[in-house]
Specification:
Elements: E1 5-9, E2 25-29, H1 37-46, E3 53-57, H2 63-71, E4 77-82, H3 85-97, E5 104-108, E6 123-128, H4 144-150, H5 157-167, E7 168-178, H6 183-192, E8 196-206, E9 213-219, E10 227-228, E11 232-237, E12 240-241, H7 243-250
Parallel strand pairs: 3-4, 3-6, 4-5, 6-7, 8-10, 8-11
Antiparallel strand pairs: 1-2, 7-9, 8-9, 11-12
Length: about 260
């Protein structure tokens, strides 16, 4: 495994025994792109649509698939495609270290192209945490890994939707996280890819503040209307998570 590995609990914090994330071990590069709370928000949102098979476009170190494997007991096969070889190796190692190599696989490649080993029938769930910003937008990151993860250097939003549309099963769902200001583009890309918007949820840093993230879910089948879910606030005070996010981050589901 290349790079300098860094191991931590999936949340960066201790886990209670009843947590579905208890004992989850994740290695990632000590420098470069590292996962954040975005992964937890996306996994929690996407878990509501998870069936027996899942595909992640741009899996990084594999954190979203690892979380989905814990959240979705019915998941039988998950595949992550990653263009950065080093991150793909980390994902493979993480799947193996957590005893999930029989369920989760990581493929080094470019998801814009057809996979070397196509999956018959498509996937029940496709997820992606794509680059939030267009190439050349804002400050360029000198770290190549971070630049690829944050800016559309190797893929565009349209590429992500087209890849998802090609790989979804007829009844499958595509779930992603992105920026609210790109919602018009998200809806346009979804339409071009034959994906019908089904659910949206806006994520706010605090209640009463403008949203800084959105969660999108769409499907291949036409739906009667777009459902806007209640907004989610990440924090309720300085350094204190909102109760819903605290439960999400701890992996505890309350009735």
């Amino acid at each position: 495994m290349s790079g300098s590995p860094h191991r931590q609990d999936a949340s960066g914090r201790g886990r209670s025994p009843e947590s579905p994330f208890a004992g989850l071990s994740v290695r990632q590069p000590a420098r470069g792109y590292r996962y954040s709370i975005d992964a937890f928000l996306l996994a929690d949102f996407a878990a509501g649509f998870c069936g027996r098979t899942a595909l992640e476009l741009g899996t990084g170190s594999g954190i979203v698939l690892l979380l989905l494997a814990r959240l979705c007991p019915g998941l039988r096969r998950g595949m992550g495609v990653e263009i950065q070889r080093e991150l793909c190796e980390f994902a493979r190692g993480n799947f193996e270290e957590n005893g999930l190599e029989g369920v989760l696989t990581a493929v080094h490649g470019d998801f814009r192209h057809e996979p070397a080993e196509p999956f018959p029938g498509g996937f029940d769930l496709v997820v992606s945490n794509p680059p939030f910003r267009k190439a050349g937008e804002g400050r360029t990151n000198p770290d190549p890994g971070k630049e690829i993860a944050r800016h559309e250097v190797t893929c565009t939003l349209s590429d992500v939707f087209r890849a998802a549309g090609r790989r979804l099963s007829p009844a499958g769902r595509f779930a992603m996280i992105g920026l609210p200001r790109r919602l018009p583009e998200i809806l346009s890309c979804a339409s071009d890819a034959g994906i019908f918007p089904e659910k949206l949820r806006f994520v706010h840093p605090y209640e009463g503040r403008p949203a800084n993230l959105l969660l999108f879910a769409g499907c291949r089948r036409k739906v009667p209307e777009l459902s806007i879910l209640p907004p989610l606030a990440v924090y309720e005070g300085r350094g204190k998570y909102h109760p819903e996010v605290e439960r999400l981050y701890r992996g505890i589901t309350l009735p």
